[in-house]
Amino acid sequence: MTGAPGGADRSWRSADPSDPSAARNVPALLLTLRKAEFTGSIVVASTPGGTIHLERGLITAIETPGAPAVGTLLLRSGRIAEADWTAAVADLPSGAHGDLGAVLVARGTIGAAELETVCASALFDAAFALVLSRPGGWQVAEADAPARIALRPGIEPRRLFEETARRVSLLTRLGSPPGALARVRIRPAGQAGAATAGIPARYRELLAAATGRRTARDLGFALGRGVFAVMLDLVRMDARHLLHREPAPAAPGGPAIGLRTPPAGPPPGVTGPLPRRIPGRRAPVGADGTPERRAERTGPSAQAAPPVPTESTWQTEKTEKSAP
Amino acid sequence: MRALEASLSEVLDSPGTVGAVVVDAVSGLGHHAVGEYRPLGTGAELAELAALIGEGLGAAGAAGELESLVVTTTRHHQVVQLVPRRGDPLLLATVLDRTRTNLALAIRQSADLAKGLLT
Q1: Residue by residue, what is the 3-state secondary structure of A140-166?
Q2: What is the span of the domain harbouring residue B82?
Q3: Which of B7, B44, B58 sits opposite A113 (nearest CB)?
Q4: A117 vs B2: CB contact, 8 Å cut-off?
Q5: What are the phi and psi torsion angles at A30 (to 5°)?
Q6: What are the residues whose beta carbons fall under 8 Å from the beta carbon of A119, sequence distance 6 or more?
Q7: How many Cβ pairs closer than 8 A exist between chain A and B?
């Protein structure tokens, strides 16, 4: 799975075998495979990566951990009940790799037209998620099983590129480049509760699901909605001051927990090592054993002194961290 | 997109309708288009328009959610109908020839078509 040219050595066969290895990136590869009317899949090894399914060079499905799949969209949104889904999977004529979409339609669980729109939404959303991930190598696999739920006939590669570029540029134009937005954790702004009267139901659902630990992708998975659609809603909600954004981690791919908002106002004034609490003493002491400057204050003025300016903020953080 | 194509062809059969599109109401993804649909603009433009008006209504204190929009030009009526579903809604937008259309009937017809669109 390393290096683009490595893709050619896995069961590749076409009129011009030099083409796929010459592809500079996945879009170029897709165009080459469209010309060759290739059927099979491309396994993209970036983070999170994914699998692009092709039939006669047209893209029929994209599976990636970066965006909810058709099943997630249908189940998490409540469109299809878990029991109906399980029953359809059990009904698959040819084992685990049968055409699950056809079974769902045949059982009357969902209409064919609606399933097509969900498949297309999932496909374009997955492409958007792939573009947000860091590029990596890829492999072309001709023998892979087709996706269980696919859009047929598939999408032309050029259409996919245009739509994906539109999505990235729209978010960028609205002031939230998706690469950065993808790493932001969302929670409702303080005043959002009071302002929910005049906002669409979709925004209210997002506010309820935004816990401060979820990114746009997490919200998409939780609600059964596309990551791009969630991002677009978040940007619009942000413009109405409904959201609070937790800043992104310093480096992409860094620790899973985002940096917290730095406290507003002046820092507490501790420059040395953190104060320690010693059993039997009422006030915390510095690392050298001397009482803390703030703790030295006594009398009514100290008791009346306001708490550290961001106490409420930290309180919120603590609650969030201890939540299951 | 065979099933959706068939559904939209039925929409095109209704009197006065010269073009129709189905787009995602949030992402603006164009799912399918038939006939003379260009006056409607792109899927992204339709979704943006619907979002702008939907949000504006709420902000102005209107109760309830947006259901349809009508744009009238000297030649056409354009009816944009929200197609509610579990998950993000769709928009069914139609272009109607003004000389052959009764607007009140067209709006009712559009709502009926939206109900049957996804079955």
Answers
A1: EECCCCCCCCCCCCCECHHHHHHHHHH
A2: 2-116
A3: B7
A4: no
A5: -60, -40
A6: A61, A70, A101, A149, A150, A151
A7: 86
Of the candidates B65, B59, B61, the residue with the CA atom closest to the CA atom of residue B25: B65
Q: How far is CA A229 from CA A51, A107, A148, A195, A207, in A?
A: 21, 29, 24, 22, 15
In this structure, is the dihedral angle defined by the CA atoms of residues A276, A281, A283 and A285, taken in order, positive or negative?
Answer: negative
Is B56 in the A-facing interface, judged by CB distances under 8 Å?
no
Q: What are phi and psi for residue A189, nearest 5 degrees?
A: -70, 160
Cα separations in angstroms, A31 against A3, A56, A137, A157: 19, 12, 17, 6
Instruction: Name the one residue in this structure whose structure tokens are 């109760």.
Output: B63
Domain at B59, CATH number = 3.30.450.30
What is the number of helices (H) and of strands (E) in chain B? 3, 5
Report pTM: 0.77
The three-class DSSP label of residue B45 is: helix
Q: How many residues appear in chain B?
A: 119
Q: Which two tokens stand for residue A210?
A: 């935004």
The predicted complex's ipTM stands at: 0.93
Give the nearest chain A residue to B1 (CA atoms): A116
pLDDT per residue as tens digits for the range A43-102: 998 888 899 999 999 999 999 999 999 999 999 999 999 999 999 998 887 666 778 999
Element counts in chain A: helices (H) and strands (E): 14, 6
Tokens of A309: 């300016």
Q: Yes or no: say if A75 and A100 are a contact pair by the CB < 8 Å rule.
A: no
Closest CA to A223 of A45, A78, A100: A78
| Number of domains making up chain B | 1
The whole-angstrom distance between B65's CA and the closest CA on chain A is 7
